[in-house]
Amino acid sequence: MKLYSTNNKALRVSFQEAVFNALPQDKGLYMPEVIPQLDPFFIQNIQQYSLQEIALTVASALIGDDIPKADLKKIVDDAINFDAPVKFLNAETAVLELFHGPSYAFKDFGARFMSRVMGYFSQKGDQLLDVLVATSGDTGGAVALGFLGVEGTRVTILYPKGKVSKVQEEQLTTNGQNIRALEVDGTFDDCQALVKEAFNDTELNSVLRLTSANSINISRLIPQTFYYFWAYAQLKAQGISEVVFTVPSGNFGNIGAGLLAYKMGLPVTHFVAGTNVNDTVPRFLRSGSYEPKPSVQTLANAMDVGNPSNWVRIQDMFDGDLEHLRGMISSYTYDDVATEQAMKELYEKYNYIACPHTAIAYLASEAYRRDTPGTYASVFLSTAHPCKFPDAIDEAVFAKVTLPKGAVDLSNKPKLATDLKVSYEDFKAYLLASR
Ligand SMILES: *Cc1c(COP(=O)(O)O)cnc(C)c1O
Predict the structure, then answer these.
(1) Residue from 407, 390, 355, 420 nearest 170 by CA
(2) Which among 9, 27, 74, 107 is annotated as catalytic?
(3) Residue limits of the Threonine synthase N-terminal domain (predicted)?
(4) Fewer Cβ neighbours under 10 Å: the N or C end of the chain?
(5) Structural domains in the chain plus CATH codes
(6) Strand order in the sheet with 179-184
């Protein structure tokens, strides 16, 4: 697999290079030189395969010789060791549940695969790989649990004190081993700024082997294609072959992976993006002019993104052709009042408890159905387990949430976190002290 930068199509880097240095110097994003086409016979018979078999076929088509198939199989089987079931709410609407991994969010797909790929490429005797990550909640948990125990790696997570939920904090702070949590007396933006400064610090980079676990990493994008194929396989097993996917979107990495799957030959009829009031992409699709804004805080806080970093990849897949984009992607925006209403409706109508992000996807899928009636199945993606968002969910409804067993176990473990002020000097000293 060779990759170019969306800002320089003449550039070529290896998969390994793109994994460890996720951002090209020119500030574009890495994209595969060619998007491989899957064998139509495989797609026609996809219902015969397991999630892991599908994942191996898709990953191997993309990555090619950079990881021999037998090694890739180990990585896939180890990373994707949980299901992503499609559950029907009624005859035409289903939810694809992506929260059955260890951190109860879809980010487990990306983080677990990335951690194992990084571990694979880190040879014995290589310097310890220091992964730095700032989190507003879900990313940190997926990265922590994804890298836990992966040899040759160490993860340092910065999270804003008092601004993540109980389950999220426990996932960050109860690991030990190669995972360290820094509880920052500041905001998520402060955490992000500290991490960014570390990556730009030449002195620090000369002594530590730093890498980011950012969502723009190509090794997080690849595994997110798997579940689109797997959802399609589950539908096909029920005789359904026409599907519209609705994706709750923030940084647009998840839907970007869906579009990549489509480009590889998955017969998807249409994609719908649901956003909260951070609506840069919906505005773009309407007006044709891309105008990022500072992010606004909402109930669906994992989607509070004013300038979606993965959008350039989507533009790239469609050669920047606005009409073509509009033909394949619709979008809808919802505020917190509508989100709360949707969570209530899902519970009352279907006895289904959803996190706020999932509720936005539900609303967008219903809106698209109204605007574009048809015989397709609407599948909206559930990106997190509701137990991660107690403050966003009505108290009486939240009381009915069944905590996964793992979440119960977590509350009995001691909290391991180091306090950090918003001071780059202190952060750097911390990193250097543990060399
Ligand atoms: C990260 C996240 C999203 C947004 O996904 P993107 O790939 O950034 O669009 C949606 N829902 C949940 C629960 C998340 O954690």
Answers:
(1) 407
(2) 107
(3) 4-79
(4) C
(5) 81-106+221-404 (3.40.50.1100)
(6) 209-212, 129-134, 153-160, 179-184, 418-420
Return the number of other C-beta atoms located less than 10 Å from residue 156's C-beta: 22
Q: Please answer whether residues 183 and 141 qualify as being in contact, where contact means their C-beta atoms are separated by less than 8 angstroms.
A: no
Ligand 1 site residues, Cβ closer than 6 angstroms: 105, 107, 138, 215, 248-254, 302-303, 355, 357, 383-384
Residue 107 a catalytic site member: yes
For the chain, residues with pLDDT lower than 50 are none
Residue reference for tokens 């879900």:
138
Q: What is the pLDDT of residues 200-223, one digit of tens each?
A: 999 999 999 999 888 899 999 999
Pocket probe for ligand 1: among 383, 388, 391, 393, the residue whose CB has the most ligand atoms within 8 Å is 383
Does the reported pTM lie above 0.85?
A: yes
pLDDT for the residue 433:
94
140, 157 Cβ separation under 8 angstroms:
yes
* Tens of pLDDT, residues 69-85: 999 999 999 999 999 99
Coil/strand/helix, residue 193: helix
DSSP run (H or E) holding 210? strand 209-212
| CA 108 to ligand 1 center in whole angstroms | 11
The pLDDT tens digits for 93-145 are 999 999 999 999 999 999 999 999 999 998 777 899 999 999 988 899 999 99
Measured distance CA(263)–CA(63) in Å, rounded: 15
Q: State the burial class of residue 181 (Cβ atoms within 10 Å of its Cβ: 0-12, 13-18, 19+).
A: buried
Position 57, amino acid? T
CB 248 within 8 A of CB 357: yes
DSSP of 350-399, one letter per residue?
A: H-----HHHHHHHHHHHHHHHHS--SPEEEEEE-B-GGG-GGGS-HHHHT
Both structure tokens of 406: 């793992």
